[in-house]
Structures are given as C-alpha cells and as structure tokens.
Amino acid sequence: MIKRDELVKIGKFNKPHGIKGEISFSFTNDSFDESECPFLICELDGIFVPFKLEEYRFTSDAAALVKLKNITTEEKVKVLANKEVYFSKKYLKEETDDHFTWDYFIGFTLIDERTGEIGLISDVDVSTLNTLFIIEKEDDEIFIPAADEMITHIDEAQKRIYMELPEGILDD
Question: Three-state SS for 128?
Fold first, then answer.
C-alpha cells in the first residue's frame, strides 16, 4: 500500500483532452520526465493509485498532455480530472547538491532564526515568478518566499526548515 509520506506532489490533472483518454497535466516538478519510474499516482477514494504513464508530450514548460495505460476513453479519464498528482520519493532523481523540489517541504515546520516557529507549510504556490511557501495560521495564511539564499538549515528527520527571513516580512 502506498503511503502519503512516500510521495511528493508534482502537479495536478486538469481536464480530459480529446476522446482517446488523454488528460492535461499541470506540473510543478518534471521529475516524471527524468525518472526510471513510469508511474504517476493519484488519490482516489482515500487510496493512492498508481497509473502507468504510457506517453506524454509537453505543451509548455509547466504543462503536458498525458496518456495513461488502460485509460482509453473520455469517460474513464474524467475520473482523474482535477486530481492532484504524486510521484514516489524513492524514484526522484538524486542531485549531488542536496537540492529538493519546493513541494518536498509541504508538511515541514518553518522556523525563522530570529523569531522562532512560524508554522506548518501546507502548500507551495508556484503560480507567480516567485515561489511561495503557504503557512496556515489560525484564520489566516502567511506567504513566505521560498528562496535558497534564506534557508540556513534543513532537518529532514524532524521535518523542519530553518530560514533567516528579512526583517518586516512577518509584519501585518
């Protein structure tokens, strides 16, 4: 059984494309293109289900049209519309400089070196030029720039990311 902590979110299936089972796919991490693992994973009815990637073609630098094995009709592919897409962490291409995708940090606690704990990273926003960590705090969201130069330490075991945030960034 596939567990959530074994996965990293890499994007989202959007809507079916055509009548032969293709679906548009917006991704924040193109690791599926660089990996030996031919599966994309979606959560269906509370269970993580792998789908064999049959073929794909990029339509932009952040989108592709995807064809999955045994998904041959528009009706079958509609089940996957608007579902988040995950990839197994064990197949992610390891890089020598300890570089991670930003989505890797979802679920980490963000700690500012000066002010202390900020909160739990609930999502990553890549819709703009500047990638942002989203931290849900009480009835509000805090947006923190995800920038290598602000990260001082990463504790993977404790799921903590330490940053030196610019003064005033946390002011209302």
Answer: coil
